[in-house]
Amino acid sequence: MSPVTRPENCPEAEWALREQLAYCYRLVDFSGWTETIFNHISARLPGPTHHYLVNPFGLNYSEVTPANLLKVDLDGHKLEVSEYDANPAGFALHSAVHGARDDIHCLIHTHTTPISAVAQKQNGFDHNNFYGAQLYGRVGYHAFEGITLFADEKARMLDSLGNKHILVLRNHGVAVGESSIEKAFFLLWTVQRAAEIQCQAAAMGGEDVALSDEIAQKCADLTAMLIREDDFAVKFFKAMVRKMHAEKGASW
């Protein structure tokens, strides 16, 4: 995408994060995982304040840029002047996680059709396909309480998430969080692929070949090891950005 000049009052580290987050929004749009103007991706800013960046409510993901991302505190208050507000449905989830999990710097919430279909099934994700096996032991489940608007739900969502990085919001969608934007995007891609294949397999006749817990755990452990290696997720993210540029052009 074409370069955008960093404002003088924006630190270099923050601007770099803004660019990466804007790319993430564009990649989610490019991948077809958007829900029009809804859903949210947040990235925690460096420092002890737990401030984070999030999309302006009302813009399509394809319209998000480094400059128009909102900077908010854990109460959802804007910290800089903007003509836009944030989606209030995102505060309970994002502020809860950013306030409590120092190991999660990026949180992505989606409800694509396959993910939402799995989220409403009693058993949630199975672990019998290549991607589903990689999620073994890594998923928390949170009972549906309606639209996530209220602060009292924060503690319950955190309890449901535990020390995991994937939270299935029952009858709703999913939230995935990781220590970087690149890692979070790769994790979302894995979750999305697991849901797509699970739904396709469920529509076919015949019994699934069930994987053992031992094999599923092995897959999950190997994937977690790859995620911990920064270069793996960065290479994947950069490759997806190049693919997007080649197909969509290169301009904010």
Automatic annotation (TrEMBL):
GO terms for molecular function: actin filament binding. SMART domains: Aldolase_II. Residues 19-199 form the Class II aldolase/adducin N-terminal domain. Pfam families: Aldolase_II (PF00596). One of its GO terms (cellular component) is cytoskeleton. SUPFAM superfamilies: AraD/HMP-PK domain-like. Gene3D superfamilies: Class II aldolase/adducin N-terminal domain. Belongs to the aldolase class II family. This is Class II aldolase/adducin family protein. It comes from Pusillimonas minor.
